[in-house]
Amino acid sequence: MKTWSEMASIQPLAVKMLVNSLKKDRVSHAYLFQGSRGTGKKAISLLMAKAIFCQYKNDAEPCQNCKDCQRIDSGNHPDVHWIIPDGQSIKKEQILHLQKEFTYTGLESNEKVYIIEDAEKMTANASNRLLKFLEEPSRQTTAMLLTSNSQSILQTIRSRCQIMALKPLNTGLFQERLEAEGVSSSNARLISALTNNITEAMEINSDEWFAMARRIVVQLVEVLQTNPDESMLFINNQWMPHFKDREQLQRGLDLLALWFKDIVYNYVGNEEAIIFINEQDKLTESSMHWSKQHATKALRYILEAKRKLEQNVHPALVMEQLTLHIQR
Ligand SMILES: [Zn+2]
Description:
The protein contains 16 helices and five strands. The longest helix is centred in the C-terminal third of the chain and has 23 residues, at 246-268. By secondary structure, it is an alpha/beta fold. The protein has a five-stranded parallel sheet, sandwiched between helices. The relative contact order is 0.09. The protein is elongated. It has helices spanning 4-10, 12-23, 41-53, 67-73, 92-103, 124-135, 155-158, 171-180, 185-192, 198-205, 208-226, 231-242, 246-268, 280-289, 292-310, 315-327; strands at 30-34, 80-83, 112-116, 141-147, 162-165. Residues 54, 56, 62-63, 66, 68-69 line the site of zinc ion.
């Protein structure tokens, strides 16, 4: 639960614009909040929804205590609809359902708000459906689309939204904040490279699974360097059993990518940027094994593997191809 004044310390520009539009009663029909994880997309859309419905707000600041505010926080407000991906994507049926709901007048007021999380995951059909919906705005509807990748959103949809670009957080500051919370400096560095959400960061820090994941990633690199013939065996016996679902696997690949980035940083002499500060010896070994060009190529292969996972390619197959590519 955040207030506008708290959010203003993270996203001063966006908050100023939104608060102004609320004060002047000039809220747009549609917003597109774009920004990476932890930049406050969800917190801002919650605040907007509350500011629209709260009867007791002070200027634009919702009271946070009334029935409307509380129901918005708990996701139970009858006139605030959330759409989240159903599995890997947001489907046409979900938008159709929303549209149908909206043909009824508001249950308790005439206002209606809908929020689409991970809007870049809309299928082409869902996007086209939403576009039609945006083209015929009813006066009291506010749409908020949340995305970390606005390039994947149809230009025709983007052009109908007021685009609010949220600033990436300063990772150095975030790292300091984690250290102040008691996270070791090497962990704070690694975790701030993966997220800028404090709750998620603290969870990762105390997560045994993550500590093990980090070890396995370093081990995989060592196997690739010293015993490439055994890398398949390692993938089958160590890697796959630990990274069980796609989300875990994405995290493992993120860690692997950070390792290869560190090799590149080593080459270009950008030591301050190195993430695995506690593994300097192993990083030096890696840098002796892989050229800068090879490390850069490996990074590309890792990104490609991440994309394939998103496209539902079988995880074991993705890992198999990746290790083969990196070895070459
Ligand atoms: Zn309220």
